[in-house]
Each structure stands twice: as C-alpha cells, then as structure tokens.
Amino acid sequence: MKIKRRFIDISIGSVHYYTANESSIEAQELPVILMPASPFSARVLNPLTLEISKSRTAIAFDHLGQGDSCCPDEHEPDISYFSKKLI
User: Fold this and answer.
1) CA 15, CA 65: separation in Å to the nearest integer?
2) DSSP type of residue 87
3) Tell me, what's the pLDDT at 84?
4) C-alpha to C-alpha distance for 56 and 58, rounded to whole angstroms
5) CB within 8 A of 20, min separation 6: which ones?
6) Angle, CA 85 vertex, CA 81 and CA 87 arms, to 5°
7) Does residue 38 register a pLDDT over 90?
8) Which contacts (CB < 8 Å, 24+ apart) does range 78-81 have?
C-alpha cells in the first residue's frame, strides 16, 4: 500500500492530509481518521496509516499550523475556533 498526500480547501486555506487504501471508500466502508498529538505533523502517523490501510482506508490529518496545513487566522485560537473552521 502506498501513502498519498492530499489537500482539502477550507475557508482560510488548505489542510494537508495523508491517505492510504482509498479503494475501500468505494466499498462503502467508513475510513479510519487519525490525528497526531499536537504539535506534530500527521507524518509521524505514517507507519500506523500503512498498517490500518491493509484493511480500511486510513486518513491522517495535519492540524492547522502543522505540517503542510495553513496556519490559523487568529493569533491565539482556542478550541472553539478550531471547531468552527473545520465544520
């Protein structure tokens, strides 16, 4: 299985994520979503992403301001900021 890099556009820029075994999405299986501990990039999850991808689609997102994702557009965002931006 190969890990692919992808981006999704949100109101303030782009969020970067890694994905593997996208074909299981077509089989209507729910993907496994992975989020790294902050302040790390989802790249640290690549070994786990590959392992999960043996049976399901695995998607590992970078947090805003980490990895190749855009930075928050507020100086000191709180948790409510992040929930509003990602919905």
Assistant:
1) 9
2) -
3) 73
4) 6
5) 1, 2, 3, 4, 49, 50, 52, 53, 57, 58
6) 120
7) no
8) none
